[in-house]
């Protein structure tokens, strides 16, 4: 499926909550989009939205009602001006390259890292700034602090990069400390591109200590984009550092080109348009509207560069109009943009909103469990102490992951067993114990290698998920793509295959039994009435499943049967 959009006004951004799409901008007011090749088999209706350009940042909101919470869920879509920003007006960048030159980098990897560094320096605009830090057991810097790019500093940087040689150990802690130390140049966006191909072997090697250095010691709020070369890296460490500093992590698999991966990330960082954005709810007087929005994800909004869009998810309280204020450095000036939306337009047809929110929430919870593993003193291949396994924080996190996974049909590699035919979801203790064992074995104990890389790739997708993943597509421990068919996400409901029936996740609630109070047969008058009732709320897809269906409608558990057709001979 492909779509062409022509508008009298410039188009800010285009978005699909239902499918991954590829977009081509032909002009300010004309775009083309199509479902990405790897998403063509995703089920469900194809939904598409676009924003026309306003003053600066443009935004719209999708809302889904949740009466039991006194509000609902929202998705805020924000876009930037359609025309690429003039580099003279965008926020200038200060880029610090931190490159591992330990002995394991010797050969092709160090050559690719050298070429990547040369490309980054070449890609900076004159007047922007840079520094270069090489590290093994020692840490050496091109300059004591970032320098402004000009002909002289560029020439010196090229010579410095070409002289780099690989030998020695890996001192990750001190190299980060040095990169974070200098005060950034005024009015520049401070960025670190941090590259390593190994685990810390010299100096401070504790994952927790290194993470705290990068996060708590980052007083100038540098964005730390991390690159793990190969699989012998501490993947949760690199992902956590990047995610918490408004950046991203990238893992370069064996036989992949380091230069290509670094260049792809750096290319996306061209033309900062809105940096350090923050969102809040305000009242009609412009004062904070406390308690109107909560559970906003991501907690830290990312910087927005040319061509970026922001997909923000959260929950709202009340039914009065809500006004959002988005502040940040917009093209070099501190600005605030206001958007007012009416929750009365919330509809169950926007079922993608709570599901996307739940997926991001699960990603954050899994990330917290991974982090807790590093603090428990877990040693790969060795069972953690009982005090760690029984940590009440772990129980709370796992309980919430299982609850959200069950309710929304969103599975992870740790909770995929929920779809298993023999799993009794009503037996909470057994479900919790199996989930805990999976988290201990994988999230805690597996922190490097390909079986750790897959966890970060799955986690990154969930924490930033902007479109549905109805087939629960994920990577397994060998980085093979897998899907799960025994759970179906339909509209705003989740159904589990049990025998020849599809069972609504809400039926599994302790307050209900699987025994229905009413049976409705396909083709009957009652069936037609049911379909009309479901369609009114955008839930008619629930009866499209193949097989009998046990579902909850208006608080009642019903069984919908589809008798097999017979032929008289």
Write the layout of secondary structure elements.
Layout: E1 2-6, E2 11-15, E3 21-27, E4 30-35, E5 49-52, E6 58-66, E7 71-79, E8 92-100, H1 108-123, E9 129-135, E10 139-141, E11 147-148, H2 151-162, H3 172-180, E12 188-196, H4 207-216, E13 223-229, H5 235-243, E14 249-252, H6 258-268, E15 272-282, E16 293-297, E17 304-305, E18 309-317, E19 322-330, E20 333-341, H7 352-375, H8 386-389, H9 392-408, H10 428-444, H11 450-463, E21 474-475, E22 481-482, E23 487-490, E24 493-498, E25 501-504, E26 518-521, H12 525-536, E27 548-553, E28 556-561
Structure description:
It is globular, with a radius of gyration of 26 Å. α5 (235-243) links the parallel β13 (223-229) and β14. It is α+β, with helices and mostly antiparallel strands and 569 residues long. The protein has helices spanning 108-123, 151-162, 172-180, 207-216, 235-243, 258-268, 352-375, 386-389, 392-408, 428-444, 450-463, 525-536; strands at 2-6, 11-15, 21-27, 30-35, 49-52, 58-66, 71-79, 92-100, 129-135, 139-141, 147-148, 188-196, 223-229, 249-252, 272-282, 293-297, 304-305, 309-317, 322-330, 333-341, 474-475, 481-482, 487-490, 493-498, 501-504, 518-521, 548-553, 556-561.
């Amino acid at each position: 499926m492909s779509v062409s959009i022509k508008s009298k006004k410039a188009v800010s951004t285009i978005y699909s909550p239902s499918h991954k799409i590829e977009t081509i901008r032909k002009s300010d007011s004309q775009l083309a989009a199509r479902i990405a090749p790897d998403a063509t088999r995703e089920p469900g209706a194809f939904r598409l939205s676009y924003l026309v350009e306003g003053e600066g940042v443009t935004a719209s909101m999708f809302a889904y009602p949740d009466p039991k919470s006194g509000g609902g869920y929202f998705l805020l879509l924000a876009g930037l001006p359609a025309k690429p920003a003039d580099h003279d007006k965008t926020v200038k960048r200060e880029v610090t390259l931190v490159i591992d030159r330990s002995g394991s980098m010797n050969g092709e990897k160090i050559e690719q890292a050298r070429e990547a560094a040369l490309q980054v320096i070449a890609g900076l605009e004159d007047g922007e700034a840079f520094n270069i830090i090489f590290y093994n057991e020692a840490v050496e810097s091109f300059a004591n602090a970032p320098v402004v790019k000009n002909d002289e500093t560029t020439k010196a940087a090229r010579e410095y990069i070409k002289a780099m040689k690989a030998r020695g150990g890996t001192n990750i802690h001190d190299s980060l400390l040095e990169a974070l130390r200098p005060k950034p140049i005024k009015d520049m966006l401070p960025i670190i591109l941090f590259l390593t191909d190994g685990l810390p072997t010299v100096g401070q090697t504790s994952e927790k200590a290194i993470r705290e250095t990068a996060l708590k010691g980052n007083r100038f709020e540098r964005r730390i984009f991390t690159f793990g070369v190969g699989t012998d890296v501490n993947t949760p460490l690199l992902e956590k550092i990047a995610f918490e500093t408004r950046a991203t992590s990238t893992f370069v698999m064996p036989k992949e080109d380091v230069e290509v991966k670094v260049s792809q990330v750096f290319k996306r960082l061209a033309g900062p348009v809105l940096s350090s954005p923050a969102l809040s709810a305000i009242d009609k007087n412009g004062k904070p509207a406390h308690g109107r929005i909560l559970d906003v994800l991501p907690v830290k909004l990312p910087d927005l560069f040319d061509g970026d869009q922001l997909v923000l998810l959260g929950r709202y309280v009340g039914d009065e109009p809500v006004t959002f204020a988005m502040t940040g450095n917009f093209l070099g000036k501190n600005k605030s943009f206001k958007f007012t939306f009416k929750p009365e337009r919330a509809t169950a047809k926007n079922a993608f909103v709570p599901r996307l929110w739940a997926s991001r929430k699960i990603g954050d919870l899994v990330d917290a469990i991974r982090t807790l593993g590093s603090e428990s003193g877990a040693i790969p291949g060795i069972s953690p102490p009982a005090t760690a396994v029984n940590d009440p924080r772990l129980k709370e996190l796992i309980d919430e992951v299982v609850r959200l996974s069950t309710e929304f049909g969103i599975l992870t590699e740790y909770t995929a067993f929920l779809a298993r035919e023999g799993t009794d979801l009503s037996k909470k203790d057994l479900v919790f114990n199996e989930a805990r064992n999976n988290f201990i074995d994988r999230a805690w104990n597996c922190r490097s290698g390909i079986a750790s890389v897959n966890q970060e790739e799955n986690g990154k997708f969930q924490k930033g998920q902007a479109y549905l993943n109805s087939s629960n597509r994920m990577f397994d421990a060998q980085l093979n793509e897998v899907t799960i068919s025994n759970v179906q996400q339909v509209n705003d409901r989740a159904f589990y295959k049990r025998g020849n029936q599809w069972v609504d996740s809400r039926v599994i609630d302790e307050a209900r039994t699987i025994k229905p109070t009413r049976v409705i047969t396909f083709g009957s008058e009652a069936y037609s009435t049911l379909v009309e009732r479901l369609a009114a709320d955008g839930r008619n897809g629930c009866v499209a499943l193949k097989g009998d269906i046990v579902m909850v409608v208006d608080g009642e558990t019903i069984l919908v049967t589809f008798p097999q057709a017979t032929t008289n001979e």
